[in-house]
Specification:
This protein is α/β, with parallel strands linked by helices. The chain is built from 16 helices and ten strands. The longest helix is centred in the middle third of the chain and has 23 residues, at about 175-195. The radius of gyration is 19 Å and the shape is globular. Nicotinamide-adenine-dinucleotide binds near residues 9, 133 and 270. Its EC number is 1.1.1.94.
């Protein structure tokens, strides 16, 4: 089946490079100047410098041409996905869509699959998520991802259509678990970055990571997720990667907060809006997500790291 990747950022470009090994791929970038530059120089200088784009990868800013493919992978950041899907529904509806972003929409609280389904009601929608840095995928390094699709048959088809020798896909029908694992691990990465950035130590980070995982499970199971999904690549796997690597933008954003340094506002940091959306959801559902709430407080600048840590440490002692 023909494949197009919509979104010419780091992840979209990396996926297009990897999938080009399997057959013809089209990469759509919204800015014509960026598409021209990438097509001519065979590199995505802004988002994935140093990675040569294969000669047979088609790069275009023409969405009509790109959306002609059978499978459309959407690598647009979560907070832009709803508007993109609404504006471009005529190109997307009725197609097979694979959301490749992680997070919860700040206004609706919905994840990527729900957001696409709202705007494209006749599309068949899946989610590709899990521990992976764009640069690793583009270099062809071994990577394991989760392909989540409520339709088991379509999920199996996509698993086989999108796997490559280096990109090993596991499938699940638990879209809720895969969505919330991928969304909330970015929140925990901000918390872990802030902990290290403020000099609170690696022991503290291990506690934040572990208790953060408990929060991810608490919210996801309440929303109907399967526990195994949270323990898998899209949950625990991505949590470990993102909370321990300075390659992660969410972790680096947390580091900057902890060090009281400025951070590039143009950078995609999915955990910031997701912390706010998840904190609101927890309040509505009447469950306790103290680390998520603390990250929302940091993002909204209502708290500094010392206050956030005080709030976590002063809670009543409880069973694990
Ligand atoms: N970079 C990674 O290593 C990585 C790995 C796994 C998953 N992801 C996920 O992929 C998603 C995208 O991240 P990224 O790293 O590619 O971000 P990025 O900042 O590198 O690129 C974002 C891209 O989206 C485009 N874009 C923004 N708004 C748009 C809109 N309204 N319409 C069309 N295009 C728009 C930008 O032009 C840019 O090309 C995120 O949800 C992220 O969590 C990223
Ligand atoms: O750079 P980040 O923090 O968006 O993380 C990238 C991926 O989500 C890691 O799996």
């Amino acid at each position: 089946m023909s494949v197009a990747v919509l979104g010419g950022g780091a992840f979209g470009t990396a996926l297009a490079v990897a999938l080009s090994q399997r057959g013809p791929v089209t990469l759509w970038c919204r800015a014509p100047a960026q598409a021209d530059d990438m097509a001519n120089r065979r590199v995505n200088e802004r988002y994935l410098p140093g990675c040569t784009l294969p000669a047979d990868l088609t790069i275009t800013a023409d969405l009509t041409a790109a959306a002609d493919a059978k499978i459309l992978l959407l690598a647009v950041p979560m907070q832009q996905l709803g508007r993109f899907a609404r504006d471009e529904a005529s190109h997307l509806d009725g197609k097979i869509l694979v959301a490749c972003c992680k997070g919860m929409d700040l206004r609706s609280g919905a994840g990527p699959v729900e957001t696409l389904a709202q705007h494209c009601p006749t599309a068949r929608v899946a989610l590709l998520t899990g521990p992976s840095f764009a640069r690793d995928i583009a270099r062809g390094l071994p990577t394991g991802l989760t392909l989540a699709c409520a339709d088991a048959g379509l999920g199996e088809t996509l698993q086989h259509q999108l796997a490559t020798p280096a990109l090993r896909l596991y499938r699940t029908t638990d879209v809720i678990g895969a969505t919330l694992g991928g969304a909330l691990k970015n929140v925990m990465a901000i918390a872990c970055g802030a902990t290290i950035g403020a000099g609170l130590g690696e022991s503290a980070r291990a506690s934040i990571l572990t208790r953060g995982f408990a929060e991810m499970q608490r919210l996801a199971l309440l929303k109907g997720a399967v526990p195994q999904t949270l323990a898998g690549l899209s949950g625990f796997g991505d949590l470990v990667l993102t909370c321990t690597s300075e390659q992660s933008r969410n972790y680096r954003f947390g580091l900057a907060i902890g060090r009281d340094e400025a951070f590039d506002a143009s950078m995609t940091v999915e955990g910031a809006a997701t912390a706010q959306a998840a904190a609101r959801l927890a309040q509505r559902e009447g469950i306790d997500l103290p680390i998520t709430s603390a990250v929302a407080g940091l993002v909204e600048k209502r708290l500094d790291v010392a206050q956030a840590m005080d709030a976590l440490l002063s809670r009543t002692l409880k069973e694990e």
